[in-house]
Each structure stands twice: as C-alpha cells, then as structure tokens.
C-alpha cells in the first residue's frame, strides 16, 4: 500500500487543510476555532461546556462509557483508523468508547460530513463528530475531535496561554481573530503543553505566511507538532473525569 505522507503532518496542519475550503451543508453547524462546532451564535464567546455541564457520566465501576455510532460511509481502512482512535483511550484512561445500543440517550455520531469538527463536551442526544473522508482520517485528528467531545478546547485558547505563547494578531486572517480568544478553561493544574494534540501550529490561520503564535520566552522550542495525544493531554483527561488510577502524581510536575 502507498504510504500516506500526510501522517507526518501535525494535527493542526491536517485540520486546517481539511477545513480550509469547507462548504457546509445547511444542516451542519457553524465552526469556531477552526474545528469546534457550536449550536448558536450565543455560544461563540462562551465555553459551551461550562455553561451546560457537559461531562459524560461515570458508572459505578469508575468508567465513563461513551456510546458511538459510525455511519456506513467509511471504507474498512477508514473505519480501522477511527476504531484505533476510539480504542486508544482505553489503555490510558477510564474512558471507554463503546458501540451504540438501543436505549442510549447520549452518543457520538461519527460521520463524514464537510470537514473535521466536534462539539465541545456532551450535548445531549446524538451529537455529530465529523471526520471527513477528505482529510480527517488520521490518528491525531480522530483523537483531537474526540477530546473536543470529551470537553476540551484548544491549547492556544487556555486561560493562561499569554504566559506561554504570544499571539500575533496582525498576522491572522481578517475575521478569524475569534479563533484565538481565550476561554476560561479549567486546566486541572496541568502545565501548558506545546505538544498537546489540541495545540495548533505556529502558522495557524495566517494571512501572510508569518506566524500567528510563538512560544515564549524561548521561540525555538518544539511547538504544535503533535501527531498523537501527549502525556499532558492524557493526564488532564484523567483529572477532568477523576480517573484516579490513571492520574499522574503531582510530583511529576515541576509546579
Ligand atoms: Zn479542534
């Protein structure tokens, strides 16, 4: 089989490429931040998650079961990429994605719509996670969209981001400033992570091929190059869902 050279691209590059020329159907949501679906304009500046309480429920066995349904428009190879992404959470957290069953009240409907996107957190009922066959079927993009569905926003919109990155507003495409608006995120005491799978790359939404964000104070550190969940992504997921068994010790951070 021919090697897919795109697998070497960072998650941010893949998402931007897939969503750049996106033309949504009339029943598809508005996107903010590049790939975050919102239900109404009123959600634009808020963190929809904190407003509506969007964590997925935990069962008495300590696990968080999240039903998913994969629509039948994916090839078996594409389905395998999605399944690998879903399964990747099991070994490192108490999150368990499992196939939809009759009677499930909340679930992820994994579809190939226009672009890669997800809502942030549990929305109630079936919620679309779009993984377009045109550009979204990579391990990193699957994990990224699932982390949105679990309640996470982009690293560059973290409440403390100004301590860790500088945003170059003058280089951002007109009208795309809102992709960089800070959100009052709960960071679970975890450090800002340049290698988070939720961190876009330096040139995200650039209008002039100049960087839109740079790490500070050292602009030379690796940044926005993730191709899979980082240890910090995993740790904050476990903290958010109180998967105690999987939480890293505080001593592992240099706080
Ligand atoms: Zn995203």
UniProtKB/TrEMBL annotation:
The active site is at 145. The keyword Metal-binding applies. Residues 45-245 form the Peptidase M12A domain. One of its GO terms (molecular function) is zinc ion binding. Coiled coil: none annotated. Its EC number is 3.4.24.-. It is an enzyme of class 3 (hydrolase). InterPro entries: MetalloPept_cat_dom_sf, Peptidase_M12A, Peptidase_Metallo. Zn(2+) binds at residues 144, 148, 154. SUPFAM superfamilies: Metalloproteases ('zincins'), catalytic domain. GO terms for biological process: proteolysis. The keyword Metal-binding applies. Keywords: Hydrolase, Metal-binding, Metalloprotease, Protease, Zinc. Its cofactor is Zn(2+). SMART domains: ZnMc. Binds 1 zinc ion per subunit. This is Metalloendopeptidase. The lineage of its organism: Eukaryota, Metazoa, Chordata, Craniata, Vertebrata.
């Amino acid at each position: 089989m021919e090697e897919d050279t795109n697998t070497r691209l960072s998650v941010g590059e893949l998402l931007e490429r897939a969503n750049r020329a996106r033309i949504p159907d009339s029943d598809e949501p508005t996107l903010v931040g590049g790939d975050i679906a919102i239900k109404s304009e009123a959600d634009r500046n808020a963190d929809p998650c904190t407003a509506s309480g969007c964590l997925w429920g935990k069962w008495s066995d300590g696990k968080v079961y999240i039903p998913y349904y994969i629509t039948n428009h994916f090839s078996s190879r594409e389905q395998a990429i999605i399944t690998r992404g879903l399964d990747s959470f099991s070994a490192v957290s108490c999150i368990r994605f499992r196939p939809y069953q009759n009677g499930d009240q909340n679930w992820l409907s994994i579809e190939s719509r226009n672009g890669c996107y997800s809502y942030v957190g549990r929305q109630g009922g079936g919620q679309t996670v779009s993984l377009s066959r045109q550009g979204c079927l990579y391990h990193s993009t699957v994990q990224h969209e699932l982390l949105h569905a679990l309640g996470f926003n982009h690293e560059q919109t973290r409440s403390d981001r100004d301590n860790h990155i500088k945003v170059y507003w003058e280089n951002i495409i007109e009208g795309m400033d809102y992709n960089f608006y800070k959100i009052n995120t709960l960071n679970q005491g975890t450090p800002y992570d340049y290698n988070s799978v939720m961190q876009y790359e330096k040139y995200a939404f650039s209008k002039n091929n100049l960087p839109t964000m740079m790490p500070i104070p050292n602009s030379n550190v690796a940044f926005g190059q993730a191709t899979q969940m980082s240890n910090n992504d995993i740790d904050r997921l476990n903290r958010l869902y109180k998967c105690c068994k999987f939480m890293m010790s505080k001593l592992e951070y240099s706080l």
